[in-house]
Fold each of these.
Amino acid sequence: MLLAGAVSAAYPATMPTTSPAARKRRVFLVDDHPLVREWLASLITQSPDLEVCGETDDPRAAPDLIGAAKADAAVVDLTLRDASGLELIKNLRALHPGVAVVVLSMHEESLYAERALRAGARGYVMKRDTTKQILAALRTVLGGGVHVGAGFAAAMATRVLGQRNGEVRSPIEQLSDRELEVFRLLGRGRGTPQIAEALGLSLKTVQAYCARIKDKLGLSSMTGLLREAVRWDQENA
């Protein structure tokens, strides 16, 4: 059942007019900005080999809608109405492993690309990238490949070399996916009850995450944690 106010749509499958090999690949859009969905739909519709099969701004409804639409791929934003795009990607991997996920995000690759790939995404594209990059990413993941920026690929190679040399990861990198989501929402002014509701967690669990984040970042108080979260969010917005 869709949440109140959610914008969702699934479009009927079109039968191929020629051979099965010529069938357009079906792409589902998950983003909470109507203008982004409209822009993506227009871009994909102009492609001879791709078509939009549905869209939603509701991450909780997305897995069911994607399954019903028989999507081949999904374009997913990571910041969805205070929900976790990473958790959505994990759910899609579990429920619809055949759907290739491309992340389209405003966040730098260095912040989320590795996490998104671990969660099950096959591609990561920045919203500031060109339309050619988005289409290239979709075609790459639909062909079974992985699409990331050249800068991220180079950074990953450097990180592997650094780990071999015993270098320690930054404190933010040591946060789990859930801890990073809690940290991000704290930086956006959300209180722990709001975070618990947005992420579908108990208040006690969110408080435990806050305690672990403080330990990992070397902070001694909740005030210090909030200050650091706001600073980090402003730097990475």
Amino acid sequence: MSLALRLADSGGEMSTPTISYKNHRFPPQVIARAVWLYFRFPLSLRMVEEMLLERGIVVSYETIRRWGRKFGPAYARQLRRRKPSRKDIWHLDEVVISIAGRKHWLWRAVDQDGYVLDEIVQTRRNTKAAKRLLIRLLKKQGMAPKRIITDKLRSYSAARRDVMPNVEHRSHKGLNNRAENSHLPLRKRERIMQGFRSVGGLQRFISIFSAVRNLFVASHKKRSALTTHIHRVRATAQWNAVTAELV
């Protein structure tokens, strides 16, 4: 057994692949590589096209776009999610994003390790929008957190009283750097992509982008070079298992 698979096995059970590449001219490894490059790094579709060409793979950026739309969501669904804990601390924040000249808000929740728990694009920055995020989080996580941390936006306090009144809430801008910093990778992508063209396109992109980032980026806890390397090897092994062709 390879080192990557042994390390992956020691880290827990992998997801069973359910991806079908039937009727596609390119092999699964090429498709998965293209999707990984696009969602893992701040690259444009044309940059990915050029990188594949350097490897002797001639494929258009439009084909890479179609692969991302078709296989990206399937890959994201298969990636293993970290099991929630009652000790979790949720950091909530919202950031404005312009789509087709209109202002929208991306609401995001991360845990104490910087792992993205959920994010949703909404047209409002009010209590109703904050409640929608909290309800989605409870449904996905299956349990309430130990504490939530937000900035001074009052909508969070009102939403928390209605949705999870027994959960501790700390509201302080200085405490919420983890959630605010979580927006930076998407901001880089936004510049590379020259903005997003639709709400649906942004929501679809972030669901894949964050799932891939959650897998490959280590937590914010201090790690040695060796443990970081092992984390990346395990992540690569899991990615290869998730994107493998179903036999």
Amino acid sequence: MSKLPEKHKFVDLSDYGRPIAKVIASSLMNTTFTPIHVTIGFIISGLIAVFFIIQGYYWLAAFFLILKSVLDAADGELARIKQKPSYTGRYFDSIADIILNALIFISIWYITDTSIWICLLAFLGLQLQGTLYNFYYVILRNKFAGDTTSRVFENITPIGLKGEKQIHVNILFGLYKMLYGPFDKTIYALDRNAEKGRVLPNWLMTSVSTLGLGFQLLIIAAMLVSGLKAIILPFFLAYTAMVFVFIGIRKSFF
């Protein structure tokens, strides 16, 4: 099941790993592997990337960052083709992402002379960027019968779907709210009428997709292998300005 109908599909620059992810998911469709297993796989890949960043093996780090991005798409694909969506998987995926993002940024701070404050602000900016991308994307998916495990407003603990335990949903949702709540509230405060606005055109969603985690990891990988490790954190801090640019465009025209 595609996330969006054909008319509203856009070139998602953050989703470059989707073709390979579909192959991986298809190969696992008739196995006992679950989406959670694939999520654990991308956690392992992300941790290996962190290790190689610290050790200075930047090509290997780049490979595992991209692999992490591919597997991050594959767990959702597997859930769709097995027709087993779950809130457990949705929140586990997001919690793993934010923890890995923090570890990646800490490892980059460790190998450079960047201020710890720039590292912290860059991390907050990274998460704010991803939150805006997800916010606009989930609005589109909700409007056009996309998957229902992602919600525009994550305020109330959802009722677990068939096959998952409510206690797991409760715990993971609580962790999700603690980690992502401040970013969700910030983006909502900045653009509280986004859901009521016109459907965002494909060109704008493609532009906003540069804020997505997959594209962020691609930029980090490219900078590592290009000898630009020292500017990775300052770049993401500065690129946070695009959050306000895109919100300004949305408010002015859509």
Amino acid sequence: MAIWIAIILGIIQGIFMFFPVSSTSHLALAQHLFIWTGQELPAPDSAEMILFDLVVHVGTLVSIAVVFRRSLSRFLCDAGNGFLAAARGSMTSKDRLFVRLTLLGLFSVAVTGMIGLPLKAYFETVFAHPILISITLVITGLLLWWTDILPDRKIGLREVGFTIALVIGVGQGLALLPGLSRSGLTIAFALFAGMKRRWAAEYSFFIAFPTILGATLLQAVTVATAAEPVTIGFGALATGFVVSALVGIAALYLVVHLLYQSRFRYFSYYVWTLALVIFLVHI
């Protein structure tokens, strides 16, 4: 993979990771375009290309850590204190809250794994079929539209239980399909379950860490143990990682603002237009 291609794919990931329009679908479509124009690139559904996609996803985790640094550091500190207090047998109500939220987040990730692992091979075949991506983009647009017309949500962090964590985990599991936005689906499912917009967003972005890191590790093992030679060099992987992290910071600030203003419906028009273009090109 040429470095300039890695830069473009990193920019695409950095922008569309947080815009709820499915960064994975945009990466796959860009890769199809590069191959169509004669660039040397592994197939979008190949193990090493999927690994590249996951590496640039890890880059955007850096963006989350920067934008939500105060909330994230406070959560990690409070959760750590909560588990230490549990070990001592002297938990306060605050300790119990953060221990419970940590366990709920891990439960959501486990639900995602139970959906994603058995269906991993099927989900990956979608990378090779732009028509299928156009269908999932239409579904993403519908979900984004509904999130904006929902009345104010009432559930805060103290009221979140395993049912809501289950619903969010299911949404994240379904979002492994290219065209279904991870951030869009997890936030939408959280809102459908009644969570307030702010907490839906932060919950969604925080559970991205174990989910994406786990998926990347699994895919790295798959590539390392495969018989096929690896053609994507470390330089391309590192470039995509850094570019996606830097671009993602600006994109995430904008997306959080739009979410709080209930303006996700604007992204619906975009994904529906993109789906139509893909469909017309490939029929």
